[in-house]
Amino acid sequence: MDNLLNISLSGAYTIVLSCLGIYLLVILFTRIFGKRSFSKMSSFDFAMTVAVGSLIATTVLSSTVSLAEGALGLLAIYFFQLTAAFFRRYKSFRKAIDNTPLLLMEKDIILYNNLKKARVTEGDLRAQLRKANVSDYSEIEAVVFETTGDITVLHSKNINNNLKSWLLTDVAV
Length: 173
Prior knowledge:
Distance between the termini: 56 Å
Family: Belongs to the UPF0702 family.
Domain YetF C-terminal: 89-170
Oligomer: single chain
Pfam families: DUF421, YetF_N
Keywords: Cell membrane, Membrane, Transmembrane, Transmembrane helix
Membrane topology: Multi-pass membrane protein
């Protein structure tokens, strides 16, 4: 119990300096490598965000990881994310690392097999429809389970069919 609140002045100093150093490096690397580093556009981007958070915590709180080692790890993660973003131009690479959006509803038809694939319940679906202010099935054009795990509801009484087709181009049915 005594160890829970026990911290030396040099330990506190090391944590604060590591925190400041890694914080400044995250800002610098994000400026260099771009804002996409913290986007939620794909599962790969999400993994990048989690990895950066984990590396920050380890660098700041672990006495076995130096600031230089944390900085190198951080640089490597940003570099790998930039490399993946470059290779995502190629369909085969993109297909290997990205999830495909999945259609959950088309007009008033609930696609139960797709709900099961996405592990989304009818209750989850209803919650998203409420969140999108849908009050009638006739308003729904499509409901899509996005690559990030978000659910998008396309609804309108006057949706343009050309726009709808374009928006659903890469969505699995």
